[in-house]
Structures are given as structure tokens and as C-alpha cells.
Design goal:
Helix 5 crosses helix 6. This protein folds into 3 domains: 65 residues, Alpha-Beta Plaits, CATH 3.30.70; 182 residues, HUPs (Rossmann fold); 121 residues, TPP-binding domain (Rossmann fold, 3-Layer(aba) Sandwich), CATH 3.40.50.1220. By secondary structure, the chain is an alpha/beta fold. Helix content is 25%, strand content 24%. The strands form 6 sheets. The chain has a 7-stranded parallel sheet with strand order 11-15-10-5-8-9-16, with helices on both faces. A 5-stranded parallel sheet has the order 18-17-19-20-21. Bound molecules: flavin-adenine dinucleotide (FAD).
Length: 408
Amino acid sequence: MSDIPLIIFEDKCTACTKCIKVCPFGALTMEPREKYDLPASRFKKIAVVNEKCTACGACVQECPFEAMELREIKRTFKHNISDYKGVWIFAEQRGGHMEDVTYELLSKGRELADVRKVELSAVLLGSGVKEKASSLFAWGADNVYVVDDPMLEEYNTDLYTDVVSTLISKYKPEMMLAGATSIGRAFIPRVAVRVQTGLTADCTALEIDSVRQILLQTRPAFGGNIMATIECPDHRPQMATVRHKVLKKITPDESRTGKIIEEKMALKEPLSKIIEVLHEMGNQVNLAEADIIVSGGRGLGGPENFKMIEELAKAIGGAVGASRAAVDADWIPAYHQVGQTGKTVCPKLYIACGISGAIQHLAGMSSSDFIVAINKDPDAPIFNVADIGIVGDLTEIVPLITKALNDR
Ligand SMILES: Cc1cc2nc3c(=O)[nH]c(=O)nc-3n(C[C@H](O)[C@H](O)[C@H](O)COP(=O)(O)OP(=O)(O)OC[C@H]3O[C@@H](n4cnc5c(N)ncnc54)[C@H](O)[C@@H]3O)c2cc1C
């Protein structure tokens, strides 16, 4: 049976070509019926599907003759699930600096490994990174797989995909967790496809089902209005990405030790090349790490009023954040955006100015330690998560707070 999920009924196809026009992938062509030894028909041609088909269903919906149907293809996992053991995390480093999300993943990974009574391993890639490997034991790793190669000096999607897929195929972990960072988001889905498993992106909670001993991966769905728990019962490893600051870090135990496993691989020349690495944002934004964030929303009324947000942020030593409405209005660049489709932040203090508190914004900031909200609408939902709510006009209140801070 072909792997293409689209069936075309030769007795119903009228060669009207509507399906071809609507297919975004060029997966359909019109071919002479005789080429396929089909019974004679008043229609000389028939639609034929090729391997570019992604089962998007656009043609099925468009076909006025119900001549097309998608069938479910059950993809069976070719390996023995019981061979897969241990929890793995991807230890993300940039320029030799271990990213904080690595410690968060190790902290959660330790918990999951303990429940499963298996080992926790980290995978560390880079050039000259071997010395960093032992620092991961304090955070709970039992093993660190290191691939240290000059070709891995800078992140490269092709190489990272090759290396991590090869390690997974060789060592067969039952779980693989990575940060939902720009790096994790770029290569981990490719790894999942390579090793023929599923991936749940942007998880907010991970736990083991106590009966079936599988990973329950929870993430927001339908625009953040519901939380969906996703399982991967029939394939391994069970793969998930988690955003920075979503998982809590444990206190490192410097007395812990573990095993470093150095892997040598013949790396293929990657298809893509890094031409230049731009550190465009520098430390100027760094929202994810900020202890204090002052955010502005549509209530600012215009881009000029972000100046008062910047002044307050400066006075209090914080970073500037924004709601998506402010970003969409082009009042501030997108890398300031906090929320479901922006950054997840967890500062000690979050000051929301003129932000209503939509669920998608709350998804990115509601775990902040202390929240101050300034809004002229006393019923704004942001007040439901605020520790201090100030009802009033932000254009009067924000400069007053800034002045009071500067006067100190
Ligand atoms: C799939 C999806 C993903 C999304 N992702 C994100 C995301 O990542 N981040 C995000 O922020 N949003 C996101 N959104 C958009 C979100 O639903 C809201 O539309 C957005 O957060 C609203 O921004 P806001 O609070 O600035 O604007 P509004 O909802 O318009 O609120 C403005 C607030 O300012 C107050 N106000 C007005 N004038 C003043 C004043 N002078 N003084 C004091 N208060 C004043 C008003 O009372 C109001 O409460 C997403 C939406 C979808 C569908």
C-alpha cells in the first residue's frame, strides 16, 4: 500500500482541475487515463497524486464530485519500545555559556528519571565544551554525552539534527527534552522526524502517568483557552520542548558526580552555512533573564508613550516588555513581546501598564513573583493576577512612580 494518504476515485474524477488549482504543494497533476489502464470514460484525464502530498485536505474540500478522500495511515514504530530507557535533556550552550534552560530541564529531568527509576543524561554539543560537561552533574545529570568538534563551534541545524538523531538511535532514551528556544525549536522537530517519533512543543508541565509510566505533556491549545495533555504511547523517545522559565530549578548539589561519555562522529558538511552571527539585541532587552520588567500595552495610546515605560524601567533597573497589541501596532519591536507567542518571563517584579490581561498575555507572565497592574478599567482581568492593582490613567501614574524613584 502506498504511503500517500490521498485516494482518488477514478469513477468520480471528472478532470475538472479544481484540485490542482487549490493544492498548495503541487502534489496533483492531470494525466491521461490510458496511462494507468483505467476503463474508458468520457473524461480523457484523471487527477493523480504524487509524493508531495501532505494530507492537508485542501483538494478533498474543493472537489465538487467527492472524488477524493484522505485515509488514515497508521505508522508503526519499527523498534522495540522496551529497548528505550533513560531520560535525556539537550544541554543548550551558546559560545560556551550554558543556557539557564539547561538547568531547568535537568531539574525536571531528575524528577522524571527518579519516578521512572532510570538515569538522567544530558547531551552537550559544541567546540571546546568538554570542560563544561562536569558542571551538569550538580544539576542532576548521571551522564553527559559530549560531542566536541570544531564544526560545532556555532549552532547549525543540519549538524545538530545529525548528531542528536545519531545519539538517540544508538543509545535509545525513552524521553528527550529540550528548551523551546530558537535553537531547540529549529532542530528538535527535525530530530523527531528523523527518529520517527512525535514531539510536543512548548510544554508547560511534564509528569509521568503513574499507571502507564508514560510522559504526560501538557501545553496550551486553542489560543491558550484550554490546556491539552498529549501522550506519545507508541513511539520512542517521547519528545518535548519547554520554554525557558516554565520549569523551576533545583538547588545544585556540587557533591554529585557522573560519567562523561565522549562521542566522536564523522560530521558531514552541512547544507546550510553560518555566514555571520549577529548579537543584535545584546543585553538591551534580555527579558527572559530580567528580575524586573515594566510592560506597556495598547493602553499607552501610541508609540510615543513607550518613552514613559522606558523611563520607569530605567529608574527601577528593569527591562521593557510589551503586549502583542503594542507589538502588532508597531509601537515596539517584537522581541519585547511577553506572552504565549512572545517570551515567557518570571521576574521578581512585573509592572503591567495599560495591559488588559488577555489569557495569551498572562500565559507569559503570570508566574512572576509580584505583579503590579496599572489600568483605568477596574474590571480589567489583569487585576485578577495582580498583587497590587492601581486603577487610573497610566499617563499620570507612571511618571509619578518614575519621579518618586528618581527622587530617592
Ligand atoms: C494565538 C494568539 C496568541 C497571542 N499571543 C499573545 C502574546 O504572546 N502576548 C500578548 O500580549 N497577547 C497575545 N495575544 C493577543 C491577546 O489576545 C490580546 O489581544 C492582547 O494581549 C491585548 O493587548 P493589550 O492588553 O495591550 O490591549 P487591550 O486588550 O486593548 O487592553 C488595553 C488596556 O489598556 C487599558 N487602558 C487604556 N487606556 C488606559 C490608560 N490611559 N491608562 C490605564 N489603562 C488604560 C484598557 O482599560 C485596557 O484594559 C495573542 C492572541 C492570540 C489569538
